[in-house]
């Protein structure tokens, strides 16, 4: 018994020493790659919550537009947050902007960053090339995260030698407004990396949820099949199922959704929806929820991509 007790005490104390030595990384310096819709939002909220941020994109012109967009967005936040004190609002905007520097050369800025958040275009080859290069230049402790919506995090992480320091951080659009972040663990993600990212999302004022590296993670895995089902219901309209207007009205008034599925598809972009469903279909062609849709394909071929082109399922001109 004494032996068992001694063994137990030894094993507990050695495991507590081990967990004490596995200190989480407190993210202070963030490098955001991609200054588009998502990257700008991520850079904005990281800077607004006291992080030092470097925002990277391909050209100075794009970065100038990103910074202008961030400033406009910050002014809106400041107007609400400091409604009674415009001077404090101006200071908040100036201080946040001063925490963001920009660069067109990712490799030259990652040597001392704690976290790289990648938000470049949804293209596996480009993401692989980027991370493979950054892997050589980033500090040993640096965590890599991708904001991909539809690619497998594992297939992106495979380009690096730091799979234990790799995970998904899936933000939602518009980033400053949307509270949720999905933190995606691949099998190789260490507990230390995972917990460091969860803490980071909390410092951003977001609500993290955890998910394995499964197509669509949580939100899109439920949302995309729902949107595709709505299109299939509409495609059966000649058999008398329902019109798109009635489907939208039904989901708003009957299910309490803020937008109907066709309004949401047009808002997200029909090319994005097609890209996601085609990718899943490639992975699992037998899954009835992942079947492509003739009417979605037709609209995309006609460049009717939704709100951004003035026409999708509905007309906006
Ligand atoms: N738009 C959304 O609603 C949304 C939501 C969640 C996640 N995502 C994901 O976030 C990522 C970015 O999406 P987005 O909507 O911001 O795209 P976007 O097209 O608005 O921005 C992408 C930016 O990446 C830049 N870029 C491309 N290659 C680069 C490189 N090699 N190095 C540096 N910059 C590069 C482009 O110049 C562009 O400014 C995608 O992976 C997408 O799947 C998008």
UniProtKB/TrEMBL annotation:
Coiled-coil annotated residue ranges, if any: none
Residues annotated as domain 3-hydroxyacyl-CoA dehydrogenase C-terminal: 216-316
Site (Important for catalytic activity): 170
UniProt: NAD(+) binding residues: 34-39, 57, 122, 127, 149, 173, 308
Catalytic activity: (3S)-3-hydroxybutanoyl-CoA + NAD(+) = acetoacetyl-CoA + NADH + H(+); (3S)-hydroxyhexadecanoyl-CoA + NAD(+) = 3-oxohexadecanoyl-CoA + NADH + H(+); a (3S)-3-hydroxyacyl-CoA + NAD(+) = a 3-oxoacyl-CoA + NADH + H(+); (3S)-hydroxydecanoyl-CoA + NAD(+) = 3-oxodecanoyl-CoA + NADH + H(+)
GO molecular function: (3S)-3-hydroxyacyl-CoA dehydrogenase (NAD+) activity; identical protein binding; NAD+ binding
Location of the protein in the cell: Mitochondrion matrix
Main location group: mitochondrion
Name of one Pfam family that matches: 3HCDH
Enzyme class of the recorded protein, top EC level: oxidoreductase
Domain 3-hydroxyacyl-CoA dehydrogenase NAD binding: from-to ranges: 29-214
Amino-acid positions noted as binding CoA in the UniProt annotation, renumbered to this chain: 73, 80, 149
A Gene Ontology term for the protein's cellular component: mitochondrial matrix
EC code(s) of this entry: 1.1.1.35
Keywords assigned by UniProt, alphabetized: Acetylation, Differentiation, Fatty acid metabolism, Hydroxylation, Lipid metabolism, Mitochondrion, NAD, Oxidoreductase, Spermatogenesis, Transit peptide
Biological process (GO), any one: positive regulation of cold-induced thermogenesis
Biological or metabolic pathway of the protein: Lipid metabolism; fatty acid beta-oxidation
Cited PANTHER family: HYDROXYACYL-COENZYME A DEHYDROGENASE, MITOCHONDRIAL, PTHR43561
Role summary: Mitochondrial fatty acid beta-oxidation enzyme that catalyzes the third step of the beta-oxidation cycle for medium and short-chain 3-hydroxy fatty acyl-CoAs (C4 to C10). Plays a role in the control of insulin secretion by inhibiting the activation of glutamate dehydrogenase 1 (GLUD1), an enzyme that has an important role in regulating amino acid-induced insulin secretion. Plays a role in the maintenance of normal spermatogenesis through the reduction of fatty acid accumulation in the testes.
Family: Belongs to the 3-hydroxyacyl-CoA dehydrogenase family.
Record text on subunit structure and interactions: Homodimer. Interacts with GLUD1; this interaction inhibits the activation of glutamate dehydrogenase 1 (GLUD1).
Name of the molecule in the record: Hydroxyacyl-coenzyme A dehydrogenase, mitochondrial
Organism: Cebus imitator
Gene expressing this chain: HADH
């Amino acid at each position: 018994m004494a032996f068992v007790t001694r063994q137990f005490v030894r094993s507990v104390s050695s495991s507590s020493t081990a967990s004490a030595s596995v200190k989480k990384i407190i993210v202070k310096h963030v490098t955001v790659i991609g200054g588009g819709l998502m990257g700008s939002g991520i850079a904005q909220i990281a800077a607004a919550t006291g992080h030092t941020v470097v925002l990277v994109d391909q050209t100075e012109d794009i970065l100038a537009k990103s910074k202008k967009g961030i400033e406009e967005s910050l002014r809106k936040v400041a107007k609400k947050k400091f409604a009674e004190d415009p001077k404090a609002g101006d200071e908040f905007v100036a201080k946040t902007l001063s925490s963001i520097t920009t660069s067109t050369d990712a490799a030259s800025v990652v040597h001392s960053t704690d976290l790289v958040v990648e938000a470049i275009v949804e293209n596996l080859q480009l993401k692989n090339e980027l991370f493979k290069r950054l892997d050589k230049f980033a500090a040993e402790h640096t965590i890599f995260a991708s904001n991909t919506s539809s690619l497998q995090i594992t297939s992106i992480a495979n380009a690096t030698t730091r799979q234990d320091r790799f995970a998904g951080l899936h933000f939602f659009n518009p980033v400053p407004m949307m509270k949720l972040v999905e933190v995606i663990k691949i099998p190789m993600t260490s507990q230390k990396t995972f917990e460091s990212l969860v803490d980071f999302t909390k410092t951003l004022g977001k609500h993290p949820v955890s998910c394995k590296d499964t197509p669509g993670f949580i939100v899109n895995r439920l949302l995309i099949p729902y949107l595709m089902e709505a299109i299939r219901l509409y495609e059966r309209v000649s058999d008398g199922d329902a019109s798109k207007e009635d489907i939208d009205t039904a989901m708003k008034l009957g299910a309490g959704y803020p937008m109907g599925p066709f309004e949401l598809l047009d808002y997200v972009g029909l090319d994005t929806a097609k890209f996601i469903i085609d990718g899943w279909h490639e992975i699992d062609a037998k899954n009835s929820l992942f079947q492509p849709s003739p009417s979605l394909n037709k609209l995309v071929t006609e460049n009717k991509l939704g709100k951004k082109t003035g026409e999708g399922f509905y007309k906006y001109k």
